């Protein structure tokens, strides 16, 4: 049963915004400020991250336009590279996405749990809240992808409205002035501080690549996918920069570096004594939007793998009435729930996720070189294909930027990088083991 096109431009744009704007913007600015040490590097890092991420979005828009397909991120790899490499990247990508969703769910539960279970032990209450939330969204998505997209649209409108309210705080309250002015960094110290910002910066901007998994879910994908990425990423970049300015203006830079409940403090400027309850509810809704988008996107990767006989055919089974991949969705939800019992700190998850994502995104963007070369050799005209401007320089800048992310994890967190590399390399023998178990020949 094939997947029918049901998502329109607005649906896909909301998916872009949702997978990028998770709860990271309510937490990572604190870490970025700590690593940047001074406001100048803080804002330069945000701007650099925005520009490089937008270059990546432009590149992936062309990649997706040239090769739109369900499970597009995986399909691009298997189409441009050896299928074993495609499996290696995507099996860690799916696991990392599930882990990221689980960590975000925990962050949201930490906000809402005091309201839901004030007398329950924190760990027990958080576990109940996160698992119940994932199961609830699982049930919604079983009703069909369009139903899930509508739920996402409502949650995203709420979350964007809250971000606008947070930005407005800079106009409601005079700017906060730091008691102590930080000394400017120079030379190697400034470069190191800037480099350290890359992991949390790109984590906060990441996620837009998941729209490539919906190539068969949108009508006229060659036009709709690039437009949706443009609209979604453009909205994200503007909101992030404005929110960052608001944080510094309201809290002061030194205050920002020492604000564990960042969203609560900003919202308190607007709603006063009701800030705690307001923030708790909004943060929880933001988490629902992120996890819901993850449930929409990631089963498409299983579909792509099953189409190429990497996974059993049952993973590409689609319910004819709801157009939902019930088996794939169930497996992905099971992985998230498993992570909810095993996750460590947010910082450790961030390093693992960015180590894996940097590998996948570099390979995905490099695919544009392969696709363009094949088109030239086949003398194929680019009619109806989105072609990015300033090729190949924008793509090369993006690749260098994410290579620095990977290098940052290897340099500052070598243990994390070592384990991540072992997991990545383990995908190679695992691919051939699965091929042999399912008795399907590997495609050269």
Automatic annotation (TrEMBL):
Gene Ontology molecular function, alphabetical: L-amino acid transmembrane transporter activity
Compartmental location: Membrane
Keywords: Membrane, Transmembrane, Transmembrane helix
Lineage: superkingdom: Bacteria
GO cellular component terms, semicolon-separated: membrane
Provenance organism: Chryseolinea serpens
InterPro entries: AA/rel_permease1 (IPR002293), AminoAcid_Transporter (IPR050598)
Topology versus the membrane: Multi-pass membrane protein
Record-annotated membrane-spanning stretches: 12-29, 41-63, 84-106, 126-145, 152-172, 192-208, 229-248, 268-291, 327-346, 352-371, 391-411, 417-434
Origin organism lineage: Bacteria, Pseudomonadati, Bacteroidota, Cytophagia, Cytophagales
Protein name (Swiss-Prot/TrEMBL): Basic amino acid/polyamine antiporter, APA family
PANTHER family for the chain: AMINO ACID TRANSPORTER, SOBREMESA, ISOFORM B
A Pfam family of this chain: AA_permease_2
């Amino acid at each position: 049963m094939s997947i029918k096109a049901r998502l329109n431009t607005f649906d896909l744009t909301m998916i872009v915004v949702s997978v990028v704007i998770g709860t990271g913007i309510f937490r990572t600015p604190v870490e970025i400020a700590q690593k940047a040490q001074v406001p100048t590097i803080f804002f330069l890092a945000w701007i650099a991250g925005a520009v490089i991420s937008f270059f990546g979005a432009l590149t992936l828009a062309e990649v997706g336009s040239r090769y739109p397909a369900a499970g597009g991120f995986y399909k691009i790899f298997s189409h441009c590279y050896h299928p074993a490499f495609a499996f290696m990247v995507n099996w860690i990508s799916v696991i990392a996405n599930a882990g990221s969703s689980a960590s975000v769910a925990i962050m949201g539960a930490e906000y809402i749990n005091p309201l839901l279970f004030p007398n329950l032990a924190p760990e027990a209450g958080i576990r109940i809240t996160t698992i119940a939330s994932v199961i609830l969204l699982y049930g919604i998505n079983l009703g069909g992808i369009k139903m899930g997209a509508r739920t996402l649209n409502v949650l995203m409108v709420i979350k964007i409205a809250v971000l606008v309210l947070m930005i407005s705080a800079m106009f409601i309250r005079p700017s906060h002035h730091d008691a102590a002015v930080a000394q400017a960094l120079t030379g190697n110290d400034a470069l190191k501080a800037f480099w350290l910002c890359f992991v949390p910066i790109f984590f906060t901007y990441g996620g837009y690549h998941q729209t490539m998994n919906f190539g068969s879910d949108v009508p006229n994908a060659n036009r709709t996918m690039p437009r949706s990425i443009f609209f979604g990423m453009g909205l994200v970049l503007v909101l992030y920069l404005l929110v960052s300015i608001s944080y510094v203006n309201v809290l002061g830079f030194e205050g920002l570096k020492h604000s564990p409940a960042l969203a609560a403090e900003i919202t308190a400027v607007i709603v006063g004594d009701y800030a705690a309850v307001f923030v708790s509810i909004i943060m929880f809704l933001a988490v629902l939007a992120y996890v819901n988008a993850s449930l929409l996107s990631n089963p498409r990767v299983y579909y792509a793998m099953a189409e190429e006989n990497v996974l059993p055919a049952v993973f590409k089974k689609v319910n004819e009435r709801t157009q939902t991949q019930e088996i794939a969705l169930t497996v992905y939800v099971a992985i998230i729930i498993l992570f909810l019992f095993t996750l460590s700190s947010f910082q450790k998850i961030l390093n693992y996720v960015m180590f894996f994502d940097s590998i996948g995104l570099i390979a995905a963007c490099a695919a544009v070189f392969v696709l363009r070369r094949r088109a030239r050799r086949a003398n194929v005209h680019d009619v109806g294909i989105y072609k990015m401007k300033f090729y190949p320089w924008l793509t090369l800048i993006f690749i260098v930027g994410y290579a620095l992310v990977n290098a940052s994890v290897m340099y500052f967190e070598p243990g994390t990088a070592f384990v991540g590399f072992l997991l990545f390399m383990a995908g190679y023998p695992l691919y051939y083991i699965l091929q042999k178990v399912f008795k399907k020949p590997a495609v050269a």
